[in-house]
Write a structure and sequence with these properties.
Chain lengths: 113, 110
């Protein structure tokens, strides 16, 4: 497709389970970002990839959160031992090298029961 | 720390003009962006200012004053479809992630 895609669109899990969220950026976009948005709030930065490396992981809230990117394309965000406070919409965005605009995917709504 | 302040809510009528202000305090500044987000939707890019002054894109304009750490988004000829949340976001260095404000909910009525 032409835009950023994310899967699953919705994920309901039990506290303590691990989840994996996937992001497919726009083809050719070298930069990829993960953000989290709690209900009615702004977006919180989690991690930034340039190519396959992550020069900025400062937003990851705890060591339960990790992310990787392969082939300068797909990225997965993994949350281990989920907690109820992890419930939020997780948004992925990508950007081409010379542009300032970030293109966002539709997000994954995570609910931890 | 970093902070971006913008009003939480703004209401207006169709055809009116609205200005959404954003003041920021960040350790570093490269540019100010504005994004629109409809309920349940993904944020979409509206504008970007790296230099002082006004940028105009159709009905939307954005202004930046780096010396005042201040910017605004101006929406003209408001339409019902403009009802959404509007976020200002600072980029501290080229290519890095955005720091978002909490968003301004704009409600446009007929």
């Amino acid at each position: 497709g032409a835009g950023v895609s994310q899967s699953p669109s919705n994920k309901v899990t039990e506290k303590g389970k691990d989840v994996e969220l996937r992001c497919d950026p726009i083809s050719g976009h070298t930069a990829l970002y993960w953000y989290r948005q709690r209900l009615g709030q702004g977006l919180e930065f989690l991690i930034y990839f340039q190519g396959n490396s992550a020069p900025d992981k400062s937003g990851l809230p705890s060591d339960r959160f990790s992310a990787e990117r392969t082939g300068e394309s797909v990225s997965t965000l993994t949350i281990q031992r989920t907690q109820q406070e992890d419930s939020a919409v997780y948004l992925c965005a990508s950007r081409s090298r010379l542009a300032s605009e970030q293109f966002f995917g539709p997000g994954t709504r995570l609910t931890v029961l | 720390g970093q902070s971006l302040e913008q009003p939480s809510e703004v209401t207006a009528v169709e055809g009116a003009i609205v200005q959404i202000n954003c003041t920021y305090q960040t350790s570093g500044f490269y540019g100010l962006s504005w994004y629109q987000q409809h309920d349940g939707g993904a944020p979409t890019f509206l504008s970007y200012n790296a230099l002082d002054g006004l940028e105009e894109t159709g009905r939307f304009s954005s202004f930046l004053s780096r010396s005042d750490s201040y910017g605004y988004l101006l929406l003209q000829e408001l339409q019902m479809k403009d009802s959404a949340s509007y976020f200002c976001a600072v980029q501290k260095q080229a290519g890095t992630a955005l720091i978002f404000g909490k968003g301004t909910t704009l409600s446009v009525s007929s």
